[in-house]
């Protein structure tokens, strides 16, 4: 199974490509399962009349725009259903620094196939570091995006195996983010390279039963690197670790 569960489209303001362009690029790269998950703050504005300068007013129609986005992605899913399996997700900013970035507390995301949580390990995260409570609030399967979970777990004074085991029981997966593009200054994630060479970490994750996901976090179709996605998927499965939604 080759999956990429983290792709952006023009619904994210840091991305310009149409969903079709993203999907076709991913298909051409040989990916079998794609998770589109735009930033909630792009989707919530839905590139329409609700724009940045309306500030917190946009929250009133947040639900409507989330639905509209979901419907659009469902159309895309149907359009390409013979070529690729598409899941419709959303990437949730949990930073409370800027009002219009954070997902409003009353916004319903439970109808999405999954949600990726970002900034879990940030001191200003509205999760307060409580992954399990926030996952419950989402009401859909949740994954942790681009976070060094071993460092996060240690910072909470918890034991890695037990924490990952709890994640597995709650159906929360952990993303291996293999991004390498200009949007992120061609930086790669240290926790991912560490995990791929650290046998001890691999054993903990494997025994816990927690699932991993692979995401390129693509924002620009022209900079997509399917080989990074493929090799990460292969490495994980060779370790005997299951990918999130591998059975879908
Ligand atoms: Zn992110
Ligand atoms: Zn992202």
What does this structure look like?
This protein has 248 residues and is α/β, with parallel strands linked by helices. The protein has one domain (3-238): TIM Barrel. The chain has nine helices and seven strands; from the N terminus they run βαβααββαβααβααβα. α6 packs across α8 (199-208). It is globular. One zinc ion binds next to loops.
Side by side, the strands of the main sheet go: 1-2-3-4-5-6-7
- What oligomeric state best describes the polypeptide chains here? single chain
Name the hetero compounds present: zinc ion
Mean pLDDT, nearest integer?
91
Report the order of strands and helices: EHEHHEEHEHHEHHEH
Count the domains: 1
In CATH, the topology is named TIM Barrel
Instruction: Using the CA coordinates, give the radius of gyration.
Output: 17 Å
Helix content: 25-40%
Beta-strand proportion: 15-25%
Question: Globular, elongated, flat, extended or rod-shaped: what is the shape?
Answer: globular
Number of distinct helices: 9
- In the CATH scheme, the class would be Alpha Beta
How many beta strands in the DSSP annotation?
A: 7
Low confidence ranges: 47-59
> What structural class results from the helix and strand content?
alpha/beta
CATH architecture grouping:
Alpha-Beta Barrel
Describe the protein's topology.
Elements: E1 3-7, H1 19-28, E2 33-39, H2 40-43, H3 62-79, E3 85-93, E4 114-118, H4 131-138, E5 142-144, H5 149-155, H6 160-170, E6 173-177, H7 190-197, H8 199-208, E7 212-215, H9 226-238
Helix pairs in contact: 6-8
One zinc ion (ZN) binds next to loops.
